[in-house]
Amino acid sequence: MSSAAKVVTTKMSASVASATAAAAEAFAANAPKTVTAIPSMVRYGPIPLSDLADENGRTPGAAIRQIGSSRRIFLLNPTLTGAEMDGLAARIQLLGKNTSLSSILLANNLERDCDVDATLPTSALEMEHIAEGDRDMFMEEVLNLGSKQEWITASGYDVRDVPQMEQDHRRRMLNSMTKLAKAVKGSKFSTLNKTQEYVTKIPFISAPHGLISDGGYALAMGSYVLATSESRFRIMNPLRGLSLDPIGLSYILPRLGWEFQQPSASYPVGSILALTGYEADASDMVETGLATHFIDSVGKLGSVERALSNLAPYEQQKLIREPFKRYGETGENSFKGDINSKFRNAAVASLMHSVSAYDAMGQETTAARDEARFLADEDPSLVLEADRASFFGDRESMLLNIAATFQDAFEKEKSVEGIMERMREHASAHASNEEETEFVNAAKNILDDMEAQSPLALSATHKLMLIGKEATESLESCMEREKKVLLKLFDKKDFKNWAKSGAEEGSFKDWTHKSVKEVTRDEIEELFK
Length: 529
What we know:
Low-confidence stretches: 1-15, 111-118, 129-149, 190-195, 365-393
Helix content: 40-55%
Mean pLDDT: 79
Number of helices: 20
Strand order of the largest sheet: 1-3-4-5-10-12-14-15
Strand content: 5-15%
CATH class of the domain at 8-234: Alpha Beta
């Protein structure tokens, strides 16, 4: 055996050993056996993806690497199997409790998408070891790829695999998806005013560079979502004869804009997303709270990783000294709890703010202001707030504009049929000027998009949204209802015929019902029983 071959064998053995050790640690914490579906690597250096493949040669959909005090989750495939979703959920739950960490960062694997060597990189920081010219050329490939084709980051499970699954297998897969969404979201607790909040000690950060659709949004439900110029979000299931995936979208979408008190909270942006298949871009995502920050260059991911890896772990983030306690001291005067709890993770929040151009709170961040000052070549005190706000252009969301324009149709009409009739009226109106023409064309596009979907699935999605927006609902109750409806739609002709046809979303027209008018109330009620 050559010396080079020995080195490769040693590296492969080391990677397998590190994955085995990580799995053993997870098992010791009562994690399910499915954690082995998501390898967790602790050694440094490139690892051949083939080294992580299972006995059938399938590369895992995701893998985890240790980067200083942080953990990086690489999304290697846009879809995950049920076992992978379950295993990833278990790993995220364990990592979220590990106070020796500072953060968890999830991002899709740009290197693999660009057809470079099929290896799992140590991190985006590995780019720093590439010659400057080669690194610039590589990043140009990354940025150009997103503009040439649809770059899918996460879409949940592979929908076309469902027809071959047994009913129990389908149920387990959806349960795993729900579990994954909850793991990313964090642990629930009730405050004194009975509002629902989700927290995790270790912040979960997503940086999706590409399209997130349907259940794939489960991976963007954490503390921070960093949108890039290529980030997108879209609901595609009704084009397949299906309703919302069970991650709580019927709870989340009606409440978009609430968390950051944005203007979008006053308009039916969630209904537009759920019922029309509208593809939200990065601006739409930030202006509705689907994303928390916007980073103007995906190349900043390396800087984010470096900073996260160098942050002090959660347990060491202390600004105030612990009160002195005498040996065996008890009673009312003895301090209980974590005196530094309100200061922990403050460094992570500050980092997210500093690397972003702007955030969902409507504020330009430090990075944007510093760049504006540099370009203006003026004393920082002379750069007015208005000038700062205009540096990146007007903060505009087409989704918000559409929701505001057609608010009456989507809020006052109580049925899908009513919404579509109202849009039909708008689409057939006579336009006498450019502004009216734009209005009519927008109505036509919305109507066309709704008519392209399964009437049964669209009606079911509408009812899920109506119920989900009620004040008495919770994320969990919506997840369970979404799961129940979806399992029944799996067995309906619309989904079976779409899957059998092999047609792409939007091109299939042979639905059981010709329009939503033909969908009966009994058919809808049966889905919710």
